[in-house]
Amino acid sequence: MLHAALIGGVTRTHDTVFGRPLLERLLLVCERCGISRFFVEAPPADEAGLRAALGPLGTGSAVAFVTSRAQALEVLPPEAPCLALQGNLVLSAWHLRGVIQAQAERSDEVVVLSSAEEGCAGTVAAGPLHRLVDDHDAGAVRLEPVGRLPYGVGGQPGDLRQAERALAANLPRESAAKDAPMARWIDRRLSWRISYLLAHTAITPNQVTLASTALGLLSAWLFASPDYWPRLLAALIFLLSTTLDGVDGELARLKLAESRLGAKLDTLTDNLVHVALFAAILTGCYRASGSRAYLALVLVLLGGFGACAVVGWWARGVDQEKDWIARLERLTGRDFAYLLVVLAALDRIHYFAWGAAFGTYVFALGLWWMAWRQRERRRLRPAPAVHGTGYAKGSENRGLIVELSELWRGQATAEPSRRTEKRGGGSRDR
Questions:
Q1: Measured between alpha carbons, how far is 105 from 224 in angstroms, rounded to an integer?
Q2: Which class for 64: exposed (0-12), middle (13-18), buried (19 or more C-beta within 10 A)?
Q3: Is the pLDDT of residue 19 over 80?
Q4: Helix boundaries (H) for 106-158
Q5: Which long-range contacts (CB under 8 A, 24 or more apart) does 158-161 make?
Q6: Domains along the chain?
Q7: pLDDT confidence of 356, banded at 50, 70, 90?
Q8: What is the pLDDT of residues 259-293, one digit of tens each?
Q9: pTM value?
Q10: Between the CA of residue 26 and those of 36, 76, 88, 414, what are the distances in Å?
Q11: Cβ distance 395 to 260 under 8 Å?
């Protein structure tokens, strides 16, 4: 685990990228990789102004302002693994985790990632503290920049806007490991552009989540119709909803506004839309055909959803390795939205109704088998080191069962306090 980040050479501390000053952004990106201690090189006369600019980050003891990175050796052991960021850099937690992972495989060496912009000096280095302080360029392992990141902000008028666009354009790479094929090939090509535009507005990720949910529920309402054109429109609206569903997380990463509430809201609303959508499809098929078999399929489908939720909860607990979690995310994606459009266009939505009702059990069984094999493999190898998730602490999507159980526990905890208030005065609960 990294002990600290050494940050220097940030001369444009107050320039903003998606509303965040460069210095604050660097600290927040480091936080998302599990770093909680910072040494910032700055003249003593600038300390008060920089602390004020950092807001809550600058008020605690986690940030120390120094005149030389060598001062970190006074409080940390020389062999302590650390990060060193030099220059007016713009990068994402995804890039930083790549440097950290590469250095973890070479614990005694220094790994360096330089700015992708020629003429704009800037580097990210990871390694033992004494080597970062002395001369980390000597004998360092150099990594190639990915895309246009890290971006070194220079003195050109359009630098900040180019840095923002580079961050947004990199979003599909960050989510590629957990995206299902159609989401990766089509959805993300559109969603990052929407996220880029929204990041320049006051719209929040949670508002995007609610908008996506509203479209999903509208799609479900239209699917309950027995007629051809409403159901085709429903399929197209649901496809739009799935694309917008990826925007909330992208927008949160661009604005560095990830939160536990946002992840919880996303999980619960996704499952609400899925249940409403599938139930509406069965309703529409029943209204179109008059067959009572579709009413029985509702119970079959609900049982399948329950099986998938339980097995998914167990599968997430089997292994916390990021590759395994990414595999689960790909399996539970929304690529079926494209199949819905095709079947609606062919007026064969009833194929999907039957397939979904019984397919949930097949999916649950397949997921259980994969998780069981993963558990057996995990017994034969040591647990991997975790260097951060890329989200704010506690904000990752942990599945429907976990989110519902947390809501239940929160409600149970709140009830005794309300009863106490009622006994104490009686008026606050009315």
A1: 54
A2: middle
A3: yes
A4: 129-134
A5: 159/120, 160/15, 160/16, 160/17
A6: 4-167 (3.90.550.10), 177-398 (1.20.120.1760)
A7: confident
A8: 888 888 888 898 899 889 998 999 999 999 999 89
A9: 0.83
A10: 12, 21, 9, 38
A11: yes
